[in-house]
Amino acid sequence: MEEKSFRIYGLSAGIKLSDEICKILGVKRQEMETIRFADGEIMVRTMNSVRGKNVYIIQSTSWPVNENLMELLIAIDALKRGSAQSINVIIPYFGYARQDRKARGRQPITCKLVANMLTTAGATKVMTVDLHSPQSMGFFDVPVDDLRSTQELVKIIMRKIEEDHIKEYVAIVSPDHGGLVRTRNVADRLGNLVGNIAVIDKRRPKPNVSEIQFVLGDVKDRVCFIVDDMIDTAGTTCNAAKALKQNGAKAVYLLACHGVFSPPAKKRLIEVIKDGTVKKVIVTNTIDINEDRLFDGLEIISIADLISQMIKAMIEKRSLSDVYSSCNEKIKKLIKKMKK
């Protein structure tokens, strides 16, 4: 691809992913300097001209959330003042996405606030991956594309079925009622490879605390794949895995798009892996996970190919839906081969 009309940048929480994306596209990641002053202030500037360019800037607003968000806002402002023609902000993991409604009186809707800040800073388009609630796209006054990691998770489940020679019925499990749409999408793409779907009924008395009520669906003697949008403190996913084992599940895999892994997630996940409750934890690289949050039994898959294909489609002014259609066709062909 020729780089005359566009530039791709990666900030502190997006450098590794942007390098992967640029390698796939066959282009060079452009340099952006981030300076942190003694008092905590941040200054960001590009090392080359962006005048008249279509800019793609990649940054996850993961931990430390506020610092990464502020760095992104300052970078957008720098690009705007550098006369970039368009500023396409790619946020693989969108922090504050869970604060998308007033659950109680006098609570903020911070997701809307962050959307306003990105627009005010100068973002002309936003791309995310697996927003906690897709309706949050309505908070933005600029176009938003919420990419879905469904096809990547489907590929992983297919690979695990082949690698581990899983002959038993497979069950796709949602850890709560809110994730049923995602679960159905995964199951639909897998077709006859899936025996059924199940859902965990839970209640959340307070943030980051969940209590399992019951398992809805037949999981006895089945290999279960719990599919979620994120694993934060891992309380929900670990409790869900334990409930499945108690209901007779033969094996349990934990799959999620975002590996947030806030303490005590690592401790909880290590425990369920060691005692045999969970066989594997699989997440994508929307978040650059720190070394101190890694553990045995964790597998990280790359989402760079999906994002790179979407960027290429935008540059070439093609439909993003065509990228999904192409991915789905490849999955269908792979499933046909597995059935032979």
Write the layout of secondary structure elements.
Layout: E1 6-10, H1 15-25, E2 32-36, E3 42-46, E4 54-58, H2 65-81, E5 86-91, H3 110-121, E6 125-129, E7 144-147, H4 150-163, E8 170-174, H5 180-190, E9 194-206, E10 209-216, E11 223-231, H6 235-246, E12 251-259, H7 265-274, E13 280-284, E14 298-301, H8 304-315, H9 320-339
Parallel strand pairs: 1-4, 4-5, 5-6, 6-7, 8-9, 8-11, 11-12, 12-13, 13-14
Antiparallel strand pairs: 2-3, 9-10
Helix pairs in contact: 1-8, 4-5, 4-9, 6-7
Percent helix: 25-40%
CATH fold category name of the largest domain? Rossmann fold
Listing every helix as H and every strand as E from the N terminus to the C terminus, the arrangement reads EHEEEHEHEEHEHEEEHEHEEHH
- In spatial order, strands of the major sheet run 10-9-8-11-12-13-14
| Gyration radius, rounded | 21 Å
The portion of residues forming beta strands comes to 25-35%
Q: What distance separates the N and C termini?
A: 38 Å
Q: How does this structure look, described?
A:
The chain is of the alpha/beta class and 340 residues long. The chain folds into 2 domains: 6-147 and 304-320, 3-Layer(aba) Sandwich (Rossmann fold); 150-301, Rossmann fold. 35% of the residues lie in helices and 26% in strands. It contains 9 helices and 14 strands. It has helices at 15-25, 65-81, 110-121, 150-163, 180-190, 235-246, 265-274, 304-315, 320-339; strands spanning 6-10, 32-36, 42-46, 54-58, 86-91, 125-129, 144-147, 170-174, 194-206, 209-216, 223-231, 251-259, 280-284, 298-301. The strands form 3 sheets. Strands 10-9-8-11-12-13-14 form a 7-stranded mixed beta sheet, sandwiched between helices. Strands 1-4-5-6-7 form a 5-stranded parallel beta sheet, with helices on both faces. Strands 2-3 form a two-stranded antiparallel sheet.
